[in-house]
Structure formats: structure tokens, C-alpha cells
Amino acid sequence: MILVLEIYIKKLKNNNLILKEFLDNAFNLKSHLMEYLSIRECDLEGFLANAKMNLANSHPGDTLNEVSDFYTEIVGDRHVADLAAWHITSSDYIADTLKLQQRFSRGLVLDFGGGIGTHALANAMSSKVEHIFFVDINQTNRNFVKYRAKKLGVEKKITFCKTIQDTQLLKFDTIVCLDVLEHLADPASQIITFNEIMDSNSIALLNWYFYKGDNNEYPFHIDDSQIIEKFFETLQSNFLEVFHPIHITTRAYKKVR
Q1: Which residue among 15, 24, 121, 242 is least packed, with the fewest CB closer than 10 Å?
Q2: Number of domains composing the chain
Q3: How far is it, in rounded angstroms, from Cα 55 to Cα 255?
Q4: Cα 85 to chain centroid, rounded
Q5: What is the pTM of this model?
Q6: Overall average pLDDT of the 122-138 stretch
């Protein structure tokens, strides 16, 4: 009994330290940005302040043939800047998603559309997680997270992939897919793929925001009513929601048996 309690306390301290480090400096995000993108400290705040507008303005609108083209060919460093600004200015919310991740993440983890790597890096610091497959179609994102992982000493726990097929479609214990589904042309198809690479004990952490904004500030989000309805029909027929007490939009799911 004493040994079990000691292990629990050790895990709790580790989780608290991970959250504290994120809330203190977002895992050294600003210094990583300056070093990786060769930005002077005096220019960093302006770079981050204009990030969302610069990313939205780069979207070609209805002339875009494929959603993936926007993230592979057009955005460049602007997506890194936008994500960094969001993670810094919304640190309390992001910290809650990390708490949720700590609650469920274990074993082999798929981080799908992992962006600047906050959740993959936090998972890599967890003793419950064996290995993470970080998937992101944007090469700048992958390279930046690889750089960050090496700086933080967790690079051996992360494999970097461009597509989910590059993971060889292994069976994952945990799937993390945050702020991604609304960017996909067919989000229903994506969660069917998730279902196929989960077993009965796996957990998927998902959220979505199918909305382009009041002033089209998110032109890269899907808001087609038929696509959204298909997504929810697929979600409800393939997954069962698992309750958690954290007051955030991210939800936990297991397969319907």
C-alpha cells in the first residue's frame, strides 16, 4: 500500500512539474522560436501579434483546390507563428488540455496534426507514455518540433511522420487530435481511420471548431453543413464518449463495442 502511494505521489509531482513548465514558458517556446526562425527578441512580440491576421490573409479563398495544399505549400512559417501565439495567449486553456492528456495518455500515442508540438512534448515527458508518433503535413512544423524535442531532451521518444500512413497504421493506445478536424475536407473519414487503429481500451482525445468566424478570420475551417452532419453521424455511430471533469471543449472517446 505504501509503495502504491509513493508511485502515485511521484506521478502526481511529475504531472504538476510538466504543467508548471508549460505555464511558466510554454516549454521554452519563445526562445525556441527566436533560435529556430532567427528572430530577434525585440521583433518577437510583433511577429506573434500579427500571426493570426497574416495566416488568414494568406488563404486564397475558394480558389484553393485542396485543403492540404494550404498547409504544405502556402503557409510557410506563418502557421508556426499563429500556433505559437495561440499557445502563449491561451495558456490556461492549453494547460487544461494537457491535464486531460495526462489523465488518459499511455503507451503508444498518435499525435495527429501536432502543430508546434506542445502536446507531443508533454506526452514525451510522461512516464506512462512509451512512444509518440507525431504526424503533421507541414514540414516546417515537423522540423520545428524535432528541434524543440532535441532541445528538451525527449527526441528519442518521438517519431516524425508526414501522413498517418507513415506510421504503418499501428494500433495506438491513445490518439490526440486537437484543433485539426475542422481543417480537413472529410473529417468523418478521418475518425473512421482513427477507429480502425484503436482497440477496445484505446482513448481518442478530439475537438473541433466548424466555423469560419464572424469576419472570416478562420477561412481555412470547414463549415459545410452536410460535411458536419456526416461527421457527427459517424462519430456517434462509432464512438462512445468517456466522461471527464475538466471544463474544456476537448472530449474523450472509446470505440463502440
Answers
A1: 24
A2: 1
A3: 35
A4: 14
A5: 0.86
A6: 96
